[in-house]
């Protein structure tokens, strides 16, 4: 593959004011016209909010807890990333077209950019939200290891970019609020990363109810075990170690880094924390959405 370095560390390009990878923008008509199917299940998150975690849980639910079936392929092939298109390397839209129903579809798009067929077909959707301070820390390390992103710069510089929405998939604040509002009108199960860490069984029961699935308790316990951070971190079909080093350099930072709540305390200075909180309060004012920064 001669062009493997051509797409690395390139600047983001805006679509309707949302910064995305240049290759997605070039292929935007494919994304926009994506044809969902009524039995598709959409898994939507802002990056670094538990996407792979909930994807693995749902794939386990769909396969009645059969862990061997869930090792049939890497998670990014079992749950294709719809809008992720890089010429000659990946095309989520085409991958999904080839998949049999029922499909699991991953997206990081804010509500206003989601292909309209999902709303038209009234697809079920799961949204997972995570507190902003843990997201920005995780995103910083992800930017460093996943080279399709622009260079993150210093932690201080990246924190500024995050606060102003100048990162891939745009403003965290707009993203979580947009999906929160949309849940009033569509079949959206809105989950919180912190709740999943605190009581995975309770949150998996919510998923089962939403998906109208009934599994015996022993299967649920098996799903909890196999979707735990430590087990997934060791699972090549879930931990992204099958991605080539030139794309994701796990020696810089593993894809599955810590998987905890409250890690932001190890990264934020007092001054950064105070500035962030003041800005956060302004941006989230008026929203009924409430987050926990630790559990």
Automatic annotation (TrEMBL):
Gene Ontology biological-process annotations: sulfation
Reactions that this protein is recorded to catalyse: 4-ethylphenol + 3'-phosphoadenylyl sulfate = 4-ethylphenyl sulfate + adenosine 3',5'-bisphosphate + H(+)
Enzyme Commission identifier(s): 2.8.2.-
Domain Sulfotransferase: 38-287
Entry similarity comment: Belongs to the sulfotransferase 1 family.
Primary location recorded for the protein, binned into one broad class: cytoplasm
MF-aspect GO terms: aryl sulfotransferase activity
GO cellular component, one term: cytoplasm
Domain of life (superkingdom): Eukaryota
Localization in the cell: Cytoplasm
Protein name: Sulfotransferase
InterPro entries: P-loop_NTPase, Sulfotransferase_dom
Keyword Heme: no
């Amino acid at each position: 593959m001669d062009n493997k370095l051509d797409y690395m560390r390139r600047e983001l390009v805006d679509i309707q004011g949302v910064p995305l990878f240049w290759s997605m923008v070039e292929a935007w008509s494919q994304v926009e016209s994506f044809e969902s199917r009524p039995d598709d299940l959409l898994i939507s998150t802002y990056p670094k909010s538990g996407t792979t975690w909930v994807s693995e849980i749902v794939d386990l639910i769909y396969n009645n807890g059969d862990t061997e079936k869930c090792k049939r392929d890497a998670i990014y092939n079992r749950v294709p990333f719809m809008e992720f298109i890089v010429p000659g390397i990946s095309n989520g839209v085409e991958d999904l077209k080839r998949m049999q129903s029922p499909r699991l579809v991953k997206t990081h798009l804010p509500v206003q950019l989601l292909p309209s067929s999902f709303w038209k077909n009234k697809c079920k959707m799961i949204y997972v939200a995570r507190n902003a301070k843990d997201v920005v820390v995780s995103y910083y390390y992800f930017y460093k290891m996943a080279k399709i992103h622009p260079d993150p710069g210093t932690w201080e510089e990246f924190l500024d970019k995050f606060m102003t929405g100048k990162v891939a998939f745009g403003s965290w604040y707009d993203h979580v609020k947009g999906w929160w509002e949309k849940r009033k009108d569509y079949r959206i199960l809105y989950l919180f990363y912190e709740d999943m860490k605190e009581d995975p069984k309770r949150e998996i029961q919510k998923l089962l109810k939403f998906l109208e699935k009934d599994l015996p308790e022993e299967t649920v316990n098996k799903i909890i075990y196999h979707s735990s951070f430590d087990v997934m971190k060791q699972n090549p079909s879930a931990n992204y170690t099958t991605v080539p080093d030139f794309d994701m350099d796990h020696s810089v930072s593993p894809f599955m880094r810590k998987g905890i709540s409250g890690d932001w305390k190890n990264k934020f200075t007092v001054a950064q924390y105070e500035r962030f909180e003041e800005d956060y309060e302004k941006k989230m004012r008026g929203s009924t959405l409430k987050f926990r920064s630790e559990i």
